[in-house]
Each structure stands twice: as C-alpha cells, then as structure tokens.
Design brief:
There is one protein chain. It contains five helices and no strands. The chain is mainly α. Helix 1 packs antiparallel against helix 2. The radius of gyration is 17 Å and the shape is flat. 11% of the residues are buried.
Length: 113
C-alpha cells in the first residue's frame, strides 16, 4: 500500500512539469483530480476534520484479525520493493518520450491503471 503514494506523487509531478507547454486551467484541473484521492490516503477530505490515514486504518484492521502489530512483521518486503522500483521507473521515464506533455499523459494513464 505504502509504495503507491510516491508513484501517485510522481504522476502529479509529471503533470506539473508541463508548465509552459500546457494549458493552465486544464493542468490545474488535472492536478486537482490527482490530489483529491492522494489526500484521501492521508485522511484529508474537504469539509471534514482530519480523518485516519489509510495506513492507520490498515494497521488497525491487520491487528484486529491477526492479534499482531503490523510493525512487528519480520522480513524484507522484497516483492513490494521490486514492484515499487519498477513503477517509479515507468513513471519517471514517461513511456520513453522526451515530450513533457506525452510524459504527463503516460503518467495520467499509469495513475488510472
């Protein structure tokens, strides 16, 4: 779960990097659409007091079903780290193009997937 948030943030950065080559209002709307679900990961919801983060909710759920604290898990999450590395590489290379708008489009598609 935790590895997805930096990827979502990288997608937002790709949209920001179209500054000067994309329409201000469309870029602004795209960023707003990207920020809202990311904010929800951290318990941010317009018009509501600060809520629990998804990590906190997951940790509480895990403890409730296993009787163990999530922080007590042992072992390195190798598969998760490998997936995270691959996702960041994919977004950061923007589909292999140099054009900021095409990189942002790739990142937006990646974010939806």
């Amino acid at each position: 779960l935790e590895s997805f948030n930096p990827v979502f943030t990288a997608c937002m950065l790709k949209v920001q990097m179209t500054l000067g080559v994309s329409d201000y209002e469309r870029r602004d709307e795209a960023l707003q659409s990207l920020i809202q679900p990311l904010g929800g990961e951290y318990g941010l919801c317009a018009g509501y007091p600060l809520l629990k983060t998804h990590r906190k909710l997951f940790s509480e759920w895990y403890t409730s079903i296993s009787g163990k604290n999530l922080n007590e898990l042992e072992g390195k999450p190798a598969a998760s780290e490998q997936l995270f590395s691959k996702m960041m590489q994919d977004v950061n290379t923007g589909g292999g193009t140099e054009c900021p708008v095409e990189q942002a489009s790739y990142a937006l598609g990646y974010n939806l997937a």
